[in-house]
Design brief:
By secondary structure, the chain is of the alpha+beta class. The protein is built from eleven helices and 25 strands.
């Protein structure tokens, strides 16, 4: 019989988070879960046979150290199980009443798992090599035409128009400053996530329950918990977002992307991290940001600094922040930027196809565009200031060499 499917003969209704992290069955079923064990813990929560807050904190503690099980054979599981039992038995024998012991014992329990390097992978930093649950949330497979707010239980709300304003208030979710009857609470016991998907040619704002305000650019997906964890706030971004983060001294705010994560307390910054783009960046406007990127040393940014990650290397430079944040006000400023990069941004913003000849793609341009104008006017304006010719043909905007 699989040891993971063997229920313990004990009651968990009075267990604290500390006691759960000492429990052999709990630790093992969190690190090597099966469908049966997941149902077991879900049932206890549903029946009130375990303190939900203690369960969530203990589970979060194990997940936060980035332990992920690989394909472990049954004989390896038994060996690992014995190691955990031995480790926990010794810990219980030496138990002290100081609270600091809670963290030491939990870390030691997890360390027993990490010791099996051939079976368990440990990732110190939050990066693409060790995806956490929020990064595993998948986007819908179907083509998205309108802004989509995807709630728990696969419920979704389609929002027409080019822009939308979404806010999580005490009474529920508001859309375009109107009450919707949609509740922000989630009745389940596991961590649940919402998604906001903004397709090409659309934009949105999003106010989270903690007061953090976000401006979301076209072709962007944001994943965020229905309710933030007590320890920290965490979201995932694929695309471009400007954030004004509400300050919570005891609860860091973490923005994750495929290649790096940024940790802040109360800060405003612009993040551009489209999964399809090689280069990803973060521009800090105010406050401070700590960047975690792969195995490299953490980088602490100061205001007016930009962090860039591309082709496996990183860079920090001082910039004029308005060139990277003005889009949220409907203005696109650029300086010595390639025409190809400018057209790519415009294509996403307007949701229309724009192409240019290779001989003009590298032209360096500087200027300012009013994004409230229609695309034809914008491209015609570029053609007046750069040595290019603009034409529209079969639903495609084309720029060629004069």
């Amino acid at each position: 019989m699989n040891i993971l499917d063997h229920y313990p003969d004990k009651k968990y209704d009075s267990y604290t988070a500390e006691e759960l992290l000492q429990d052999d069955f709990f630790v093992f079923s969190m690190t090597c879960p099966t469908e049966t064990t997941e149902k077991f813990w879900h049932k206890l929560q549903g029946n009130g046979e375990i303190d939900v807050d203690s369960y969530r904190f203990a589970r979060y503690f194990i997940e936060s150290v980035q332990v992920r099980s690989e394909n472990i054979r049954e004989d390896e599981k038994k060996t690992l199980w014995k190691s955990i039992e031995t480790r926990n038995r010794k810990l219980r024998e030496k138990r002290r009443k100081k609270r600091v012991w809670f963290y030491c014992s939990a870390a030691a329990t997890v360390a027993a798992l990490v010791a099996f390097g051939s079976m368990i992978l440990y990732h110190e930093n939050d990066n693409a090599a060790g995806l956490t649950r929020i990064e595993d949330i998948k986007a819908p497979d179907t083509q998205i035409e309108n802004i989509q707010l995807i709630l728990t239980d696969d419920k979704s709300v389609s929002l027409e128009g080019e822009e939308a304003e979404i806010a999580y208030r005490e009474h529920g979710i508001e859309i375009n400053k109107q009450a919707t009857g949609l509740k922000k609470e989630y009745a389940g016991h596991d961590i649940a996530y919402n998604q906001l998907i903004v397709p090409r040619g659309k934009r949105s704002t999003l106010t989270l329950a903690d007061g953090t305000h976000m401006w979301i650019n076209a072709s962007t997906r944001v994943v965020y918990p229905v309710t933030f964890d007590k320890g920290r706030r965490e979201i995932y971004v694929d695309g471009e977002v400007f954030l004004d983060v509400a300050n919570r001294d005891d609860r860091p705010f973490v923005v994750k992307t495929k290649t790096f994560s940024a940790e802040v307390l109360g800060t405003s910054f612009n993040i551009t991290a489209y999964e399809s783009d090689e280069a990803k960046s973060l521009v800090l406007v105010s406050g401070s940001v700590r960047i975690h990127a792969g195995n490299a040393k953490d980088i602490l940014l100061a205001p007016s600094e930009m962090f860039t990650s591309a082709n496996g290397s990183t860079q920090v430079q001082t910039v004029q922040t308005e060139y990277y944040t003005s889009w949220k006000s409907g203005v696109y400023q650029y300086e010595s930027e390639s025409l190809d990069a400018i057209l790519k941004r415009l294509s996403r913003y307007y949701g229309q196809e724009i192409v240019c000849e290779s001989q003009v793609a590298t032209f360096k341009c500087s200027g300012k565009l009013d994004l409230k104008d229609n695309l034809e006017e914008v491209l015609s304006g570029i053609a007046l200031t750069a040595p290019v010719r603009y034409q529209y043909n079969y639903e495609t905007h084309i720029l060629t060499d004069k």
